[in-house]
Amino acid sequence: MSFQYSIGLQVWHPHADPDLVERGFALEASHKKTAGKARKTSKGTPLSGTYRESYCHFDLASGEDGKLADCFKGLVDKLEAKKSYIEEIKQSGGRLSFFVGWTCGEHGEVFDVELLSAIASLGIDLGIEPYRVKQY
What we know:
By secondary structure, the protein is an alpha+beta fold. It has one domain (4-131). It is 29% helix and 35% strand. It is built from 4 helices and 7 strands. The protein has helices spanning 18-25, 68-79, 83-91, 113-122; strands at 4-13, 31-33, 38-40, 46-50, 54-63, 95-103, 125-131. A 5-stranded mixed beta sheet has the order 2-5-1-6-7. It has a two-stranded antiparallel sheet with strand order 3-4. Helix 2 (68-79) runs parallel beside helix 4 (113-122). It is globular and about 45 Å long. This is DUF4279 domain-containing protein.
């Protein structure tokens, strides 16, 4: 049995407008929050306080084919065109992370040195969240 996965890109910034971050990546965020705005739940219920920083989460890819590394290589190649924008975000105080949701299957995956080097050269962190059951 192959494993299932999803790959997202998370962007945090001290003050950036999430709409501008969306435009910078030419992607639509599945979740976004604006620094200084009132906090609320995903259903819109108000919470106390305000967001300390802006945040965008972009759903990039998902699959059930067990080919996470191959999918990642394609995404990294596409994001290479946004490298100067990524550097701009980081230089102005932002940070970025790939978020991988991984439903455990019968085998693992190898991220070869070329892929890891390409992710590192973009300046994007890598987070992996293993799941026992399908999450999406």
